[in-house]
Write a structure and sequence with these properties.
Number of strands: 15
Largest sheet: 15 strands, parallel
Number of helices: 14
Order of helices and strands: EHHEHEHEEHEEEEHEHEHEHEHEHEHHH
Strand content: 5-15%
Structural class: alpha/beta
Length: 467
């Protein structure tokens, strides 16, 4: 039986009592859906009120009766998703007045609420003080967000999950600072996701004293420019609990601030398992000092973080060994994602050799050059066996993206070499558009005289595990 139900409805049908009448007729009359946990209300414009100028006199009673019937039909519902275009029924006409009352009463049915783009305008007319004890809020903001922030603050004592996406420039300080300037604490919040589609520089005007508003965070996603200026209040008090961290670093200024204030040290976040950093879009113009700072920040976060990722497309540490050496720092590393990185296979082999628990590497196809001194292509297998094999017993997969055919052709032998040295290297996960061509090139390499005797082992790379 379904656990989610969607109701598409015009607000006017609720005001006029038609919605309640429809729910009271066959086949819905007397029906109950005890397994339903999520109720999606998709408000539509409707045509039956286009000539209406005044509300029915019993509109408020009809709203209450409709909400009561919803509760009867879905007694176990705990999540309300509110969506729909609201432009035609904002408070511009008399017929739109009760929309805030309807939304308010629906939200009070549950402990979890989600509202999509456009719906935040309803909160400009709502008495959010009446909406308390929510545990989950998932909000999309299209206006200034002031009332949405108020709704969030109002539920700070009970919130466990907060996901807020702003499509406009929003003052996110309203999450943790009330109208009197005091700091709001979220003692039960475990997941905080803040994202903003607008780009901007790091604001500098905030200062929150000694506040630690999110003391028990486990998952933190900041998909925007850092919202709290020079004050790194977001990271205070949760070093002992944080398990998952994803930061969009819109400027290297934030990288330096995090390093300068020692927010992250090798012993500061003992439970952190996943670190994902997305550097500034202009990283192609960055210096190698910037690269070094970025990698040092990633590798210094959490002593045992098994998954570390930098989504950088222009990161190339080959000419700068100090950058590469930072990658081999943590023996506990299991997944390393540097999707813009192109390493000579010898650096990649050293990396795998240095990280005994590494199972997955996300990087561009490796290069064969520069070749080790005195080593020819005919001596590659012997060189690999004497210097690397066996190694990386847990290494199983190399992930790459959609590469040009020439780059794949040049990378076939560099992929074969770790397959010979790593006993459990099973496959190359490759973008599906180039999958067939890569398989052809790999088949050709396997059939070469130098590698043919190893064909049974190398054919693992041709299994249907390509992604």
């Amino acid at each position: 039986m379904a656990k989610e139900v969607t109701i598409s409805i015009s607000p006017w049908t609720v005001y006029s009592g038609k919605a309640l009448a429809a729910l009271s007729q066959e086949p819905l009359n007397g029906c109950s859906f005890p397994l339903v946990r999520t109720l999606k209300i998709d408000f539509t414009h409707g045509q039956d009120n286009k000539d209406a100028t005044v509300l029915p006199p019993d509109a408020e009673d009809n709203i209450g009766a409709f909400v009561h019937r919803i509760r009867q039909m879905a007694p176990g519902v705990n999540l309300i998703k509110l969506s729909g275009g609201l432009n035609s029924w904002e408070r511009t006409t008399a017929t739109a007045l009760p929309i805030d009352s309807l939304a308010n009463q629906l939200i009070q049915l549950v402990s979890r609420v989600e509202f999509t783009s456009g719906f935040d305008r309803v909160f400009h007319f709502m008495e959010v003080d009446a909406i308390r004890n929510l545990t989950h809020i998932h909000a999309t903001v299209d206006l200034d967000g002031e009332q949405t922030m108020r709704l969030i603050r109002q539920n700070a004592p009970t919130l466990q999950y907060l996901n807020i996406l702003s499509r406009v420039d929003t003052d996110f300080s309203g999450i943790i600072q009330d109208i009197d300037g005091g700091c709001v604490e979220y003692p039960r919040l475990r997941t905080l996701v803040m994202e903003q589609s607008m780009s901007g520089k790091m604001p500098r005007q905030y200062a929150f004293g000694a506040a630690a508003p999110f003391p028990n965070l486990r998952r933190l996603v900041c998909g925007m420019g850092y919202p709290f200026g020079d004050d790194l209040v977001l990271f205070r008090g949760n070093a002992a609990t944080l398990e998952h961290l994803r930061l969009v670093l819109t400027t290297f200024e934030l990288v330096l601030a995090l390093l300068r204030h020692n927010v992250f040290t090798p012993t500061s976040h003992p439970k952190l398992q996943c670190v994902m950093l997305i550097p500034p879009l202009g990283i192609i113009q960055a210096t190698y000092a910037d690269y070094t700072d970025l990698i040092r920040l990633m590798m210094d976060i959490g002593p045992d973080a098994a998954v570390r990722e930098i989504s950088a497309w222009y990161l190339d540490p080959v000419p700068h060994p100090p950058v590469f050496s930072l990658l081999t720092k943590h023996a506990s590393l299991q997944v390393l994602a540097l999707p813009g990185l192109r390493l000579p296979i010898w650096n990649a082999m050293t990396l795998i050799q240095s990280l005994p628990l590494l199972s997955d590497l996300h990087a561009r196809p490796p290069t064969l050059d520069p070749m080790p001194a005195g080593v020819t292509k005919r001596k590659l297998i012997a060189y690999v066996h004497s210097n690397y094999s066996p190694m990386g017993t847990r290494f199983r997969c190399w992930h790459i993206g959609n590469e040009r055919v020439k780059e794949l052709k040049d990378a076939v032998i560099p992929f074969v070499l770790p397959a010979l040295a790593c006993p459990n290297f099973d496959y190359v996960a490759i973008f599906h558009f180039t999958r067939e061509r890569f398989a052809e090139l790999l088949e050709q390499a396997i059939n070469m005289a130098t590698y043919k005797k190893h064909a049974p082992r190398l054919r693992r790379l041709l299994l249907n595990r390509l992604e």
